[in-house]
User: Which sequence fits this backbone?
């Protein structure tokens, strides 16, 4: 027992800052009664007794992305970061008072957003967002909603109190709090299409539907709707099986007609609202400016929750709810699940599951400071072309899903100032150091899946394996603001040093290049450091100090420095020191290898040397 408490305390230490927005007592209750149950049901020792898992492991919910304790903490932290990043860029700026409440509301709804996953089945996953809304109207949650109210968690209760005191909202303040939290299904784009979130009357109507009806009844209705949409896109020759499925769910829906109103929330609904729900969520229909501001704050927080959930941790940090690491086989491109049990036995299960294959190779997916999305990958190296293309295709599919959540969630109604007056989100794909082709293959697959993204995709230099000194220098350096004429003169100067420039195109080769200035005594790079950049000095002042006992040497202006280690992928074999102030260009290795690197063949070199030395032709 002592070990368990120590572990829990350690986990709490890493998330104590969330206490500012949500009482630790409430978080502990939610984690124990919902998210820990999800973790338990995903454990291998439990799954071996689950017939659905043993009969068909592929696509079983236990092997989906984490929906347990780590996940909810990750999303609760991410919503704070995401709000800070997109504030004033993708959502309008707020006063500190309003923005602080949005953070509180974000953390609270993040903690409730996936509690429905305790129903560990396809049905449970499909209705988990509706479950969360209904659960907030059960007696078990009453004491914890009371704590949220009494502790003024996230300053949300205070904001509600002020609106009610002014008579701007005609309802019991604590009831309004429950209603605000009951909007949590809006985290799901399938449960809450963005058009519903954007339109307050439809939003109110939709949430009242979710609260009143039995989950099975809602599930059957949604399945019929999805199948009917699919039928519209299916050729006549293949519609027969769809028709059978639709009729099956229509029969199931009819069987629930008499019991369609849920008994789960009926007691509290009647206690709060009486015989009908005409006063429920009525503040969503208010035209008062202060209430409208409040509603917009809630809506924009829910948009951000959708984004934060989509940008959850992936890659080697990506595990299932059972704590199984998922990674990619470089031989097949398939996903490998490291299934472990309480005896610490490990069973490596390989499955060709596209979602897992794609998610396992995404190292990070996050907003930049300017509101664009940057996505990086762990590896681009695979032993076969088939595995390479399979991974790239699956990664592109995941990126498209992420963008569907993020871009769709940030759509505003046509009358809103942010409907069109924003720069479109750019997708910045970071090149992979072990295979520059990989990012291009992902890009090509993504454009094929979603042609509307063609103008949004850009490539970024990878900085994950770069020495800290060089990384900071690059990030702090100036962009190269040269005219085409100056770039052409520069290329002619490096050509005089023997560098082949015939394949270099000005429109591509100078992207991501930085202009730097070194001071006397500063190292450009040190021996045995990993390659990351090629440098070209614009004047005198650099000295190379090589390995192997060779003599130090002065480096002439317009010489290429570090290109041999970049090309070979080996550590630097010399240190380079500035003996006086000197400026230089800094070319990232992916840009260099993609747009600068070129070699001579024997005949080309013979022709070049003949011209350079004014030799007579030997032919």
Assistant:
């Amino acid at each position: 027992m002592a070990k368990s408490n120590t572990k829990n305390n350690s986990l709490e230490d890493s998330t104590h800052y969330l206490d500012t927005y949500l009482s630790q007592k409430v978080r502990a209750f939610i984690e124990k009664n919902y998210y820990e149950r999800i973790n338990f049901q995903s454990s291998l020792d439990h799954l071996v007794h689950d017939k659905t898992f043993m009969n068909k492991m592929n696509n079983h919910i236990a092997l989906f992305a984490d929906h347990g304790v780590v996940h909810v903490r990750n999303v609760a932290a991410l919503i704070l970061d995401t709000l800070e990043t997109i504030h004033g860029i993708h959502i309008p700026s707020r006063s500190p008072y309003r923005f602080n409440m949005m953070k509180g509301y974000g953390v609270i709804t993040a903690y409730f957003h996936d509690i429905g996953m305790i129903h560990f089945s396809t049905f449970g996953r499909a209705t988990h967002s509706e479950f969360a809304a209904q659960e907030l109207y059960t007696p078990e949650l009453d004491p914890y909603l009371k704590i949220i109210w009494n502790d003024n968690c996230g300053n949300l209760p205070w904001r509600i109190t002020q609106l009610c005191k002014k008579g701007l909202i005609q309802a019991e303040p604590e009831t309004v709090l429950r209603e605000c939290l009951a909007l949590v299904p809006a985290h799901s784009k399938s449960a809450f299409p963005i058009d519903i979130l954007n339109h307050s009357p439809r939003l109110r109507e939709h949430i009242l539907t979710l609260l009143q009806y039995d989950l099975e009844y809602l599930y059957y209705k949604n399945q019929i709707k999805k199948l009917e949409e699919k039928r519209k896109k299916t050729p006549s020759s293949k519609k027969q099986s769809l028709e059978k499925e639709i009729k099956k769910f229509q029969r199931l829906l009819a069987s629930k007609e008499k019991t369609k109103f849920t008994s789960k929330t009926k007691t509290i609904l009647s206690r709060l609202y009486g015989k009908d729900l005409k006063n429920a969520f009525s503040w969503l229909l208010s035209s008062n400016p202060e209430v409208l501001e409040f509603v917009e704050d809630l809506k924009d927080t829910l948009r951000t929750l959708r984004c934060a959930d989509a940008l959850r941790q992936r890659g080697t940090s990506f595990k299932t709810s059972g704590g199984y690491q998922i990674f990619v086989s470089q031989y097949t491109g398939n996903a490998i699940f490291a299934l472990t049990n309480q005896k610490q036995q490990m069973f490596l299960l390989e499955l060709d599951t596209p979602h897992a294959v794609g998610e396992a190779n995404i190292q990070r997916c996050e907003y930049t400071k300017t509101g664009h999305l940057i996505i990086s990958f762990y590896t681009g190296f695979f032993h076969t072309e088939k595995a390479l293309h399979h991974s790239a295709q699956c990664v592109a599919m995941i990126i498209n899903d992420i963008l569907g959540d993020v871009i769709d969630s940030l759509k505003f109604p046509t009358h809103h100032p942010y409907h069109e007056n924003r720069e479109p989100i750019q997708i910045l794909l970071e090149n992979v150091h072990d295979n520059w082709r990989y990012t291009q293959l992902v890009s090509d697959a993504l454009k094929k899946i979603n042609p509307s993204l063609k103008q949004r995709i850009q490539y970024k230099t990878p900085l994950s394996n770069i020495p800290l000194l060089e990384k900071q220098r690059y990030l702090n350096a100036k962009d190269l603001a040269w005219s085409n004429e100056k770039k052409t003169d520069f290329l002619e100067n490096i050509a005089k040093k023997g560098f082949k420039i015939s394949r270099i195109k000005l429109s591509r080769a100078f992207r991501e290049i930085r202009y730097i200035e070194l001071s006397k005594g500063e190292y450009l790079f040190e021996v045995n450091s990993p390659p990351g950049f090629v440098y070209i000095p614009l004047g005198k002042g650099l000295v190379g100090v090589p390995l192997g006992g060779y003599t130090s040497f002065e480096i002439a202006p317009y010489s290429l420095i570090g290109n041999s280690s970049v090309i070979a992928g080996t550590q630097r074999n010399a240190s380079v020191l500035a003996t006086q102030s000197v400026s230089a260009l800094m070319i990232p290795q992916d840009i260099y290898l993609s747009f600068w690197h070129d070699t001579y063949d024997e005949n080309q070199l013979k022709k070049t040397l003949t011209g350079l030395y004014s030799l007579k032709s030997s032919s």
